[in-house]
Amino acid sequence: MTTATDKQAFYARLLAIGEERYHDKHAFHAMLHGGRATMTQVRAWVINRYYYQSRIPMKDAAFLSRCDDPDLRRAWRSRIEDHDGGIDEGGGIRRWLRLAEAVGLDPAYVASTRGVLPATRFAVDAYVSFVREKPLLEAVASSLTELFAPKIHSERIAGLLAHYAFADQAALAYFRQRLAEAPRDVEFGLAYVLDHADTVEKQDAAAAALIFKTDVLWAQLDALYSAYVTPGLIPPGGWDGEQGVVVKPTAREAAE
């Protein structure tokens, strides 16, 4: 094995991956944050992104099942609580379903995941399998897209508030909460990766894991763009633009 480069240089390498490959640069996000997405496209995003949100605590549970170190388990388990919440309230999944309701979808339909695009399902399931099967260092490194998340959450909050009537404090609670949670999570995850990637080989593996995760996020937006923007070909099983909608169309939707 080859001696690793210093931590600061490796950290810069991780940041460069986000600068080049994070999904804030995808055309679908430019549409969404700029108010150019139709409500059909917004709802499709909410439906498909829910599948990712709902699998995050499952991914983290799979990670915990492999941890022999109780200190690591104690530090990591808050991620499950952040997404699942308590018995009766709280959690990112419930907050996402409030967003679903705000955009005019039946939360029960969204939670069923029946309208999720095949490519979305494939990408997210691949991420869960990655964390379940890869070395712990690589599993942790794959979570470091959180390094780049606060910026996209801030842009999303501002963009949705500026351009969409559904956007209010309750609807956007998921993103506001992640502004507080993500920095805490990434502080631990980054320290773990920088400490444990102590050879060039391990640094390369950790960087590859982060690239894999950016690919997972990008692939989900590619699927949305292909199905609901251009060429607009919804694959079998994908949401048809009508099922699960519980509000009358707005004037803008009627003109679509």
UniProtKB/TrEMBL annotation:
One matching Pfam family, short form? Answer: TENA_THI-4
Which pathway does it serve? Cofactor biosynthesis; pyrroloquinoline quinone biosynthesis
Looking at the record, the residues that make up the Thiaminase-2/PQQC domain are: 12-222
For the biological process aspect of GO, one term held by this record is: pyrroloquinoline quinone biosynthetic process
Q: Name the chemical reaction catalysed here.
A: 6-(2-amino-2-carboxyethyl)-7,8-dioxo-1,2,3,4,7,8-hexahydroquinoline-2,4-dicarboxylate + 3 O2 = pyrroloquinoline quinone + 2 H2O2 + 2 H2O + H(+)
The enzyme's E.C. designation = 1.3.3.11
MF term (GO), any: pyrroloquinoline-quinone synthase activity
Which InterPro entries would you find in this protein's record? Haem_Oase-like_multi-hlx, PqqC, PqqC-like, Thiaminase-2/PQQC
Alphabetically list the UniProt keywords.
Oxidoreductase, PQQ biosynthesis
Does the entry feature the keyword Oxidoreductase, yes or no?
yes
NCBIfam families per record? PQQ_syn_pqqC (TIGR02111)
Of which family is this protein a member?
Answer: Belongs to the PqqC family.
Recorded hits in PANTHER family, A to Z, give: 4-AMINOBENZOATE SYNTHASE, PQQC-LIKE PROTEIN
Per its record, how is this protein called by name? Pyrroloquinoline-quinone synthase
- The species is Sinorhizobium alkalisoli
Its ancestry begins with: Bacteria, Pseudomonadati, Pseudomonadota, Alphaproteobacteria, Hyphomicrobiales
